[in-house]
Amino acid sequence: MKNNKLIQHIFIISLVISVIFPLVNIYFIFPSFKDLLINNAEDEALRIGNHMSGMLLKKNRELTHANVTSTLSLDKYQLLLHDFQLMKLKIFSPSGEILYSTNPDEIGDINVYSYFHEHVARGKTYTKVVKKDSESLEGQKVVVDVVETYVPIIKGNKFYGAFEIYYDLSSRNRELNDFIVISSIVTLILIFGYLVTLIYVILRSDKRNSEILLEHLPRRLSSPFYSILLIIISLFVTETIVMLVISALPSLSVITRAVFDSTLLVVLVSPLLYYFMLRPLLVHITELVRAKQRISHMSLYDDLTNLPNRTLFGDRLQQAVLHAERYKRKLAVLFLDLDNFKRLNDIFEHRGGDLILREIADRLSSNLRSSDAMARMNKEEVSSMVARLGGDEFSILLTEVQTKQDVIQAAGRVKNILSEPVMINDQEVFITSSIGIATYPGDGQDADSLLTNAHSATYYLKNHGRNNFQFYEDSMNETAFHLLILENDLHKALNNEEFILYYQPRMDILTGNIASLEALIRMIKPDRGIIPPMEFIPLAEESGLIVPIGEWIMRNACQMRKSWQYSGLIDTSISVNISGYQFQRQDFISTIARILEETGLDPSLLELEITETVMMQDGRESLTILHQLKDMGVCLAMDDFGTGYSSFSYLKSFPLDTIKIDRSFIRDVTTNKDTAAIVEAIVAMALRLDLRIVAEGVETGEQLTFLKDQGCHEIQGFFITPPLPADAIYPFIMETSNRAHVIS
Questions:
Q1: Bigger pLDDT: 18 or 59?
Q2: Of 267, 241, 424, 436, whose CA–CA distance to 336 is shortest?
Q3: DSSP code, position 724
Q4: Which of 99, 302, 441, 579 is least surrounded by CB atoms within 10 angstroms?
Q5: List of E strands, 461-592
Q6: Rounded distance, CA 372 to CA 624, Å?
Q7: Contact 728/713 with Cβ under 8 angstroms?
């Protein structure tokens, strides 16, 4: 009975161990295992240091290279490394001089690093875990994971020097992994042998029972609970084996038997517990924790930049407002929108756009001063933070604000941070931004109003110059609302064909005849009448609608020119302005070719006007595109010449037919000597390059006379006529032709 009770007690203990063992491993052993290895390495280093300190200071009052060498021979040194499984050992004097080292070349070098004099020299142990391919405390690259420990040599409160001890952490991890693999293989062999034996014994029973077992056994093996059943059976079988061993040793006491039984049971069952219960449970718990962390992180942080998202920013902003209200403080919200990001995203595709966003996020979060950087929370105060609100929009919360000048300085730092180019495919890309600013309490009393008003200031700035910062004003909400209505009107106009083309003639100065017609878009709204392009083109470019609008202009201009050709009424070319967004799209060439094919227009009758700034943004790529257009037979004109780079060397290499002198020069050409000199130089240069010259914005006869004297070929402007609808073009051309002799 006593033996039976003992067996029952031990069996119960075994079952308890099968439950407690995985829980202990999950919650205590595994989380601290890595730290335990490091702590053990540090403790061993202390023991070695104490042992060697006694050996070195036993006969010497001071540590020098001579007495260290005499005390610690090479054989002793090598034996020390081998016995304690050390990777490297150095001995330093109090001044930091290396007296002894595994590498003889290092002897005599001085350790000048601050940790030696600030920590080790003051009797403190200093330990660092150095990862593979990173640098040690002395700046040396290591090829394995190591634990580097400095142990001070102290005797009688006097600092005699220090030991530097390297432990190879990678080799210890490898030994542990090898042990786990071997134990796993042995466990699998034992379990497999046990199952084979068990099945063999069962199948050797009577035929009826064997048929029943054969029918149900596969389903049990496929059951997810079979592993748990196997553990319980294994515990019982292991307990039986242990009791047989104990029975063979009757001289053992009851306590000794119980200790032996428990110890052997744990040793035998641990691999089974690990591979059939602990390991799956640990993996499952880890996956659940990671999934929960990922979901929590995704709900509060931007997946691309890892910055706080709109939700977290709004929450922290509201907390900051409450804190500022309680303590009568000020704060500011900066709403940052990247200029022309959609165009860059189209050019470099989403991969390049993502790279730009990550680079901007890294700059904002790392280069701003700490009080303007990432979110940092305590019990009461909300620190400044940077967030990505979506797309190319970022927001910065400034809580350390005293005056308006503080905000201006912060906005200036943001501009400077973004001024450096971003490298994409070995190409420099310059990024600018529009920054709207709203301050508490003047521009809003809650998070929503502050963020909305900062956004309104950004929206206002993007339509009034960009690449700057703008404080919020009350009138901006009305402007933002107007722009929102206008953007909706643009979408409707595209869908409802509410655009119309006007044409502005270009006159040949010598003959007085109309040489070309420039297609200019207008938007027609029933409640507002005709809306000029200057009111909606900037918004179309910002929203990306300029691409379908530009294609509509191109197609309708080509169709109109083709209809005039059929009627035989007009024999002039048609010119169309090309936006930078269109020019840098990958499908730009194919779009032009498709429209020409669909409309049947002769390419030589189409002239594309591209601004100097657009051409010069990427000179090499622009040159390739321009040559492709010339190969199609299209005429090319550089628009607004003089307002951008004005590079004569590029003019020589670009396959241009025409340059158009910007109206800003023509306006003052008869009243300003400097402007007149510039125009003279432009005309002379263009004539030498055999380019046709068009002067924009001509409004007076004096301007016409000046341009004619310089050799300019064509003029365009209100002196001839403002833009005209299509049905007024033919009568105007006929009228101009009749009075051509007067102008000439």
A1: 59
A2: 436
A3: E
A4: 441
A5: 468-471, 499-508, 514-525, 529-531, 573-578
A6: 44
A7: no
* Length reported for the chain: 744
Other Cβ atoms closer than 10 A to 347: 22
Question: Where are the strands (E) in 579-654, listed by range?
Answer: 606-611, 635-641
Closest-CA residue to 717 (of 671, 646, 661, 658): 661
| 224 vs 562: CA distance, rounded Å | 76
* Position 692 confidence tier, pLDDT thresholds 50, 70, 90: very high
Q: Which of 214-218, 348-352, 546-550 has the lowest mean pLDDT?
A: 214-218
- One-letter amino acid for residue 498 of the chain: E
What is the average pLDDT across 207-233?
A: 44
pLDDT the model gives residue 586 = 84
Reported as type and span, the H/E element at residue 184 is helix 169-203
Report which DSSP code applies to 658. E
DSSP state for residue 421 in the 8-state scheme: P
Over residues 9-55, the pLDDT tens digits come to 434 444 454 454 444 444 444 444 455 556 667 777 777 777 777 77
| Mean pLDDT confidence for 109-129 | 83
Query: Cis peptide before 441, with omega less than 30 degrees from 0?
Result: yes
Q: Examine the pLDDT at 735 and tell me if it is beyond 50.
A: yes
Per the structure block, which two tokens stand in for 94?
A: 């109090």
Angle, nearest 10°, between helix axes 254-273 and 169-203?
100
DSSP assignment letter at 27? I
**Closest CA relative to residue 436, chosen from 384, 476, 484:** 476
Distance CA(457)–CA(436), nearest Å, equals 4
pLDDT exceeds cutoff 90 at 591: yes
Q: Within a 13 Å sphere around the CA of 78, how many CA atoms are in the beta-carbon half? A: 2
Q: What's at 247, amino acid-wise?
A: S
Nearest C-alpha neighbor of 149 from the set 86, 227, 68:
86
Q: What pLDDT is stored for residue 380 in this prediction?
A: 44
> Within the chain, what is the greatest distance between any pair of CA atoms?
137
Secondary structure in 3-state letters for 362-395: HHHHHHCCHHHCCCCECCCCECCEEEEEECCEEE
Band the pLDDT of 172: cuts 50, 70, 90. Answer: low
Q: What does the block give as tokens for 652?
A: 């020589």
pLDDT at 552: 93
Q: What element of type H or E holds 91?
A: strand 86-92
The pLDDT of residue 52 = 78
Query: How far is the C-alpha of 401 from the C-alpha of 332, rounded, in Å?
Result: 7
> Which residue shows structure tokens 């054989």?
75
The C-alpha angle with vertex 666 and arms to 535 and 613, in degrees rounded to 5, equals 60
pLDDT in tens, 150-165: 888 888 788 888 888 8
Q: Are 546 and 583 in contact (CB under 8 A)?
A: no
Alpha-carbon distance of 362 to 618, in angstroms, equals 26
For 29-62, letters b (16+ CB in 10 Å) and e give: eeeeeeeebbeebbebbbebbeebbeebbeeeee
Backbone dihedral region for residue 346 (phi beyond 0: left; psi -120 to 50: alpha; all else: beta): alpha
**DSSP label at residue 274:** I
Written as six digits, the tokens of 719 are 């002196």
Give the pLDDT score at 683: 92
Band (239; pLDDT cuts 50, 70, 90): low
- Element holding 714 (H helix, E strand): strand 714-716
The answer to whether residue 482 scores a pLDDT higher than 90 is no
Strands 573-578 and 514-525: parallel
Q: Return the structure tokens found at 722.
A: 């403002």
